[in-house]
């Protein structure tokens, strides 16, 4: 059954200018990946999945198609692309322009909709902090050329219920001035019927073949000697009392001839995480398996979940428990984790009601496919008059990818690193029409621009850091993603 019916739709159209039309179908033979492939999403589409706690798939997966609007920003210039053409604006604050854009939408909140039924999906680069915080200089060269913000507002959203094996097909009808409401409803119904026909067909997905494995080589853009040197320089700042921790990163890059969705399928298999995403954004693609939330807003509840402290998974359940106990009791791991919990409390405390911020599940351990992490939840009630963009500003970027204190750490990062970070260490996820927001930190992510594939990995530098060990930590973090690329190539052999 399609909801709402035409009569209800026409009633909603008196006040709303975005109305979701939806229906449920059974899809017990399909997976989110097969559904994405069947839909042939084209140049602007996405797939969002989740593996909760690293061990079981989250209930819902989201596929987005056919954007009504594409929002991009670089520096203080924005581009808004719709069917009417491309609007370009200069000397503006992109986050405030995004807020203004959202304020122009009046969504109908109808029964039966999931937490995300429409809005914007994409990424925000680390470098937008230079627009949010005037003290951070913007001096590094932009070697990769990614946008600072790239978001899609999809008309079609497919919500796969991994528990019930059903699919909710949502068509967001955007009603502009002069739109015939009956025609808009009929068009939405026809689009949904077309989606269902595609889903009912078998999947024709040709496997790419190569004479030999593509052999993608992701080489470091910074030589080892330079990285060891900047670690020593960071330690000097720490000894001088500027910071407690500074997160330094390095980038790897190489040409990639392979299908990026094939790489995503490999990554989700070998390194599943709470935030799995495949974003196809024109000539930019993000393929990610992030373990860490940046900030989530559900209703008026703000939530962050700092991760700090890692151990490998044990070979047996007994070994797992022993490693978990060791992780909880390690004084250095606890101290670093406590620092990040305090940072999380301070961040959300800037936008939450006084006295509402509290810590949940303090020092709990989450297990993933290869490692376990020390995590804590920090939650609070959003202050009246605040919205999801205030939450973004308060928490961006995460302390786990910048350092502490954040502002001074970011000033030092700008001095010591060799290029703008781009999507790395920024945010990826959605801003919902209902006011909900869910953003992950863009780590453990492959980013492609044109035919060049990039990945970036960082290490948290503290007073007693050994430069050689920090270099190795960045290599270890990069290897999981490199392995996904390598195995994708072998699968195509």
In short:
With 493 residues, the chain is α+β, with helices and mostly antiparallel strands. The chain is 31% helix and 33% strand. Strand 3 (51-52) and strand 4 form a beta hairpin.
Blueprint of the fold:
Blueprint: H1 6-12, E1 18-26, H2 32-39, E2 44-49, E3 51-52, E4 56-57, E5 60-74, E6 77-82, E7 85-89, H3 94-103, E8 119-124, H4 129-132, E9 149-161, E10 166-174, H5 181-200, E11 219-220, H6 224-239, E12 245-255, H7 260-270, E13 275-281, E14 284-290, E15 293-298, E16 301-304, E17 307-312, H8 317-329, H9 331-349, E18 358-367, E19 371-381, H10 388-395, E20 403-404, H11 406-416, E21 427-432, E22 437-441, E23 445-449, E24 452-461, H12 467-491
Antiparallel strand pairs: 1-10, 2-5, 2-13, 3-4, 5-6, 5-9, 6-7, 8-9, 8-21, 9-10, 11-12, 12-20, 12-24, 13-14, 14-23, 15-16, 15-22, 16-19, 17-19, 18-19, 21-22, 23-24
Detailed description of the structure:
With 493 residues, the chain is of the alpha+beta class. The model has no long low-confidence stretch (mean pLDDT 92). The longest helix is centred in the last third of the chain and has 25 residues, at 467-491. The chain has a 22-stranded antiparallel beta sheet that branches. It has a two-stranded antiparallel ribbon with strand order 3-4. Helix 6 (224-239) packs across helix 12. The chain has a single domain (6-203, 210-300, 382-491), classed as Anthranilate synthase. The protein starts with 5 loop residues before the first helix and ends with a helix. The protein has 12 helices and 24 strands. The chain has helices spanning 6-12, 32-39, 94-103, 129-132, 181-200, 224-239, 260-270, 317-329, 331-349, 388-395, 406-416, 467-491; strands at residues 18-26, 44-49, 51-52, 56-57, 60-74, 77-82, 85-89, 119-124, 149-161, 166-174, 219-220, 245-255, 275-281, 284-290, 293-298, 301-304, 307-312, 358-367, 371-381, 403-404, 427-432, 437-441, 445-449, 452-461. It is globular and about 70 Å long.
């Amino acid at each position: 059954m399609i909801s709402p019916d035409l009569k209800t739709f026409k009633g909603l159209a008196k006040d709303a200018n975005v109305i979701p039309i939806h229906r449920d179908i059974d899809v017990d033979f399909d997976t989110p990946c097969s559904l994405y492939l069947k839909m042939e999403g084209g140049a602007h589409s996405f797939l969002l999945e989740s593996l909760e706690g690293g061990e079981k798939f989250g209930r819902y997966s989201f596929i987005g198609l056919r954007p009504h609007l594409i929002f991009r920003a670089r520096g203080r210039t924005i581009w808004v692309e719709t069917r009417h053409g491309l609007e370009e604006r200069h000397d503006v604050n992109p986050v405030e322009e995004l807020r203004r854009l959202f304020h122009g939408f009046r969504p109908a909140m109808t029964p039966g909709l999931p937490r995300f039924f429409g809005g914007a999906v994409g990424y925000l680069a680390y470098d937008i902090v230079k627009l949010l915080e005037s003290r951070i200089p913007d001096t590094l060269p932009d070697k990769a050329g990614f946008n600072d913000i790239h978001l899609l507002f999809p008309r079609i959203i497919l919500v796969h219920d991994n528990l019930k094996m059903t699919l909710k097909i949502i068509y967001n009808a955007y009603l502009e001035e002069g739109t015939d409401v009956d025609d808009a409803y009929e068009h939405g119904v026809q689009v949904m019927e077309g989606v269902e026909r595609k889903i009912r067909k078998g999947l024709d997905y040709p496997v790419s073949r190569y004479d030999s494995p593509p052999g993608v080589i992701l080489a470091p853009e910074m030589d080892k000697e330079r990285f060891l040197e900047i670690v020593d320089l960071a330690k000097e700042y720490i000894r001088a009392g500027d910071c407690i921790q500074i997160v330094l990163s390095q980038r790897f890059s190489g040409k990639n001839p392979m299908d990026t969705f094939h790489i995503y399928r490999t990554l989700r298999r070998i390194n599943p995480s709470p935030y799995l995403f495949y974003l196809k954004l024109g000539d930019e693609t993000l393929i990610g398996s992030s373990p860490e939330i940046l900030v989530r807003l559900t209703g008026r509840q703000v939530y962050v979940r700092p991760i700090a402290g890692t151990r490998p998974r044990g070979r047996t359940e007994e070994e797992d428990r022993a490693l978990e106990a060791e992780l909880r009791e390690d004084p250095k791991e606890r101290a670093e984790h406590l620092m990040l919990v305090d940072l999380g409390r301070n961040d959300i405390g800037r936008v939450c009601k006084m006295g509402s911020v509290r810590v949940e599940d303090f020092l709990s351990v989450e297990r993933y496919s290869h490692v376990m992490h020390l995590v804590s939840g920090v939650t609070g009630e959003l202050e009246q008059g605040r919205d999801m963009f205030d939450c973004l500003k308060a928490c961006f970027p995460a302390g786990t990818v910048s350092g502490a204190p954040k502002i001074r750490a970011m000033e030092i990062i700008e001095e010591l690193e060799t290029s703008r970070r781009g999507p790395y260490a920024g945010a990826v996820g959605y801003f919902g029409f209902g006011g909900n927001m869910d953003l992950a930190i863009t780590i453990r992510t492959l980013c492609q621009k044109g035919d060049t594939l990039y990945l970036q990995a960082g290490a948290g530098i503290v007073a007693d850091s050994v430069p050689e060990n920090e270099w190795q930590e960045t290599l270890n973090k990069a290897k999981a993603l490199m392995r996904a690329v390598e195995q994708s190539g072998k699968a195509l052999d």
